[in-house]
Specification:
The structure is a homodimer of 356-residue chains. By secondary structure, chain A is α/β, with parallel strands linked by helices. The first copy, chain A, folds into two domains: 161 residues, Rossmann fold (3-Layer(aba) Sandwich), CATH 3.40.50.1970; 120 residues, Up-down Bundle (Dehydroquinate synthase-like, alpha domain). Chain A contains 13 helices and twelve strands. In chain A, helix 9 crosses helix 12.
Chain lengths: 356, 356
């Protein structure tokens, strides 16, 4: 059994998102793509297969390898397999694999078909839909990429069974971010009420959480597929902080963990700037603590200049000014410049921390 | 004084093509793009400027440098200059510079504005319009790229005054190709009747030739902007042969010269396959000879397998078969597979050659 929905994107393009309730259903769907296919795994996701398909590339795992030389390996493999523009690139793995497979598919012969099979929670709720392909460049996360939506995204909660705890936890950071970007409180309420079944990865709870979370993201994407209207930028809530943290931490902190921290920082800055109510700020922090995120982390004072430089490199830096996504209310994001003193206090003092 | 026309492309995008009749008019137009601009030159086109603008990259000149490391230099310069998504990349030079500036602009922060100023005839009539960005990859020409139309293309015949003769001659190869892709014979007749003023680069003749040639290309592009409908492929007339020749010649032969040779080969193969009339084949060869193209060149017998392998790598290779563009008539291109014996005879025997 499978449910599905379709996203309508720029230029008449669409993405079909399929929810497949077993590994068997996933395999059946995958076998329908024929033989002119290139599979891209990383050293983790390859283990989900007992025997590997022909025409496959296995990339080393991790953000450190999210660079041109990995993309070059995918393109080389496609060329060696004599694939043409009518072939299909299947990215099977987490966000790094999916982002790079998408970039390679968009570049090879100026564009092949793309299918993504996200195997991490983070990638299911974030990277796999929305058409953002990317690699990192000189320490700037996702600086280089294209808008290239997948034709199909295949999501199966069954893939999450063996996901390491830290990866699963990281994905929840993005899910919580989506909860506060939604103008109804369905996802927020579900996260509050179903904590235990979510952390124990109950399959029904997972499927419900995935559907609600993707629904929020899909809404923003459809209204502004190529991030030209200031709508889709809202999905970057928490990300200016998160990317800078990741950058100065040399990408050791998990992305969703950085997002959770950034969400708390954005809530505090929004409060300090008179945009976010104290009540919403506290609700955000409370949900993040419920899911065991460390929002008390502080940037050492001596690293403030590094952090500030990393913020300036962020992609939301338009015409030299840095605009942060802040929340006026649940589902009401706004883009604002922030006084650097406010940002400094938010990241080096971690105001509002429990043991402050 | 300037004339202009607008191309309507996929996803509501447009390209404005401006014909500017002096260097002064070109400079005035360029100064309107403001200060958040990155200029890309090569070691030739930089000489058109007495003093270089701020934020510029000067790439080494030539097809050998049409690779990722050049694109990386453009992206690095943009990052160092703190450019954001609202900035403008200006590619100023021949096809290599324009193709790579377009690729960098499409990738930097997933897409900045792009302005192209072609300074060679080849680039004016070919690479600058149509939105194909590219680099070469492992000997396969333009294997990696994106569809990313320029916002503006600025064309001035004045830039052609100092173009080396060999470069100018090469550009005429693409112009002649366009003449046979046009369903009216305006460009064909103009090339036949105005040979002397064209080769002496009379400015009025040049402007007329540029406008007629771009009109032909624009028609194919607008009907099939992302080469999905089998219409735009027609512009690849002669190119399967040309790319393979360039590949086995290690890119020493000039592109337009290879296209002229390929056009003659395509005419002969079309004739051999019963698609092209003897009369059209002869008309093609006659015009190519009038403009002094060496269509008698032969591939050495011992290099046939290399040539064949290069053909198989061509981007028009769909699902493992190679389809060539042949001409049923002026302006009536068709895509056909060709028996490899026909191709072999066409390239190693050069049938129809004058001193054969």
């Amino acid at each position: 059994m499978a449910s599905s929905f379709t996203l309508s994107l720029a230029g008449g393009k669409t993405t079909d998102v399929f929810f497949l309730d077993s590994i068997k259903a996933l395999s059946d769907k995958l076998s329908g793509y024929g033989r002119r296919v290139l599979w891209v795994f990383d050293s983790n996701s390859r283990n989900l297969f007992t025997s590997l398909p022909a025409n496959c590339v296995i990339l080393p795992s991790g953000e450190h390898f999210k660079n041109w030389s990995s993309v070059e390996r995918i393109i080389s493999a496609a060329l060696d397999a004599h694939l043409a523009r009518d072939s299909v690139f299947i990215g099977f793995g987490g966000g790094v694999v999916c982002d790079m497979t998408a970039l390679a598919a968009s570049l090879y012969m100026r564009g092949c078909s793309l299918v993504l099979v996200p195997t991490s929670l983070l990638c299911m709720v974030d990277a796999s839909i929305g058409g953002k392909s990317a690699i990192d460049f000189k320490g700037a996360k996702n600086l280089v990429g294209t808008f290239y939506p997948a034709k199909d995204v295949l999501i199966s909660a069954a893939c999450l069974r063996t996901l390491p705890e830290a990866e699963y936890h990281s994905g929840l950071g993005e899910v919580i971010k989506h909860a506060f970007l939604s103008s109804d409180d369905e996802l927020y309420s579900f996260l509050c009420s179903s904590h235990d079944s979510i952390v124990s990865r109950d399959r029904e709870a997972l499927t419900r959480m995935l559907e609600l979370s993707l629904k929020v993201k899909a809404e923003y994407i459809q209204r502004d597929p190529e991030e030209r209207k200031g709508i889709r930028q809202a999905l970057n809530l928490a990300h200016t902080f998160a990317h800078a943290l990741e950058s100065i931490d040399n990408f050791n902190v998990k992305h969703g963990v950085a997002v959770a921290w950034g969400l708390s920082r954005a809530a505090w800055c929004g409060y300090a700037a008179g945009v976010t109510s104290a009540e919403l700020r506290d609700r955000i922090d409370a949900l993040l603590r419920l899911y065991d995120f460390d929002i008390d982390r502080r940037i050492e004072r001596g690293r403030w200049l590094d952090f500030q430089a990393a913020v300036a490199k962020d992609k939301k830096n338009l015409s030299g000014t840095v605009r942060f996504v802040l929340l006026e209310d649940m589902g009401v994001p706004v883009l604002r410049e922030l006084d650097s003193e406010i940002v400094k206090i938010a990241v080096i003092s971690a105001p509002g921390r429990k043991n402050g």
